[in-house]
Specification:
alpha/beta; TIM Barrel; 11 helices; 7 strands
Amino acid sequence: MDSHYTDKKTLPKPPWLKVKIPSGAPFEDVRKLIEDRKLHTVCQSAQCPNIWECFSRRTATFMILGDRCTRNCRFCAVPSHPTGPPDPDEPSRVAAAVKSLGLSYVVVTSVTRDDLSDGGAAHFARTIQEIRRAVPAVRVEVLIPDFQGSEQALFTVTQALPDVLNHNLETVPRLYPRVRPQADYRRSLKLLERVRLHDSRILTKSGLMLGLGESFHEVESVLADLLEVGCRVLTLGQYLQPSTEHLPVERFVSPDEFEQLRQIALKMGFREVASGPLVRSSYHAGELYYASAL
């Protein structure tokens, strides 16, 4: 980790990024359910600013394959270095939690597990199957890693027929060496394109963090690339520095600029776009899915 991260002056947060402190009975109910079933959520592990809103609405984004990642992306709060194989009972526990919460739309993501032969693809597929077994009418969105470009691993997931397959590009290609040194921009685009070729019924989705030093033109270029590979649902949100050991925020993007980008993306051809300072990959995911299906 570059030591200069701790030396750079931290930008003060603008007022539109102030969020409510988590509390209340519904929040505690979801937090306790997650704890009791020994599950993980990206809401907690990635320090999502929307945790109060989502938990209070009795929903959460489940994070499978453990709570430690084999990569060390410089924007992410999830700890590194997995300590063991995935828990084989995790898919059924996620399904039981989905049923207990009464969810009709669920988002499942994961840490990246480059140490596994299939990157955890079979675990994703089993989780989808167990959720559907527990709640047959549920819609399932998965937010997957790149599986190091393995088409077979991707096919394992698409065969389980998630309703939405999300894979985030996260940032513009120029910033990949600094932000996502173990990822590859073109490889991620190819993954999204392959989903459409595997099964056109699966809606593809992607997202970007803004405020890492990208230009407006670079963002527009990424949007064009996403459209070219068939991606039609998009999320745009503000990058927030999890700690002084992570990349600093270069700029806070205003709500007006986020709305401007939303309108540009819709005019370019995206079916639905969530764009705002506090938007994250799974933010109001169900609403975004149903709006895109109209």
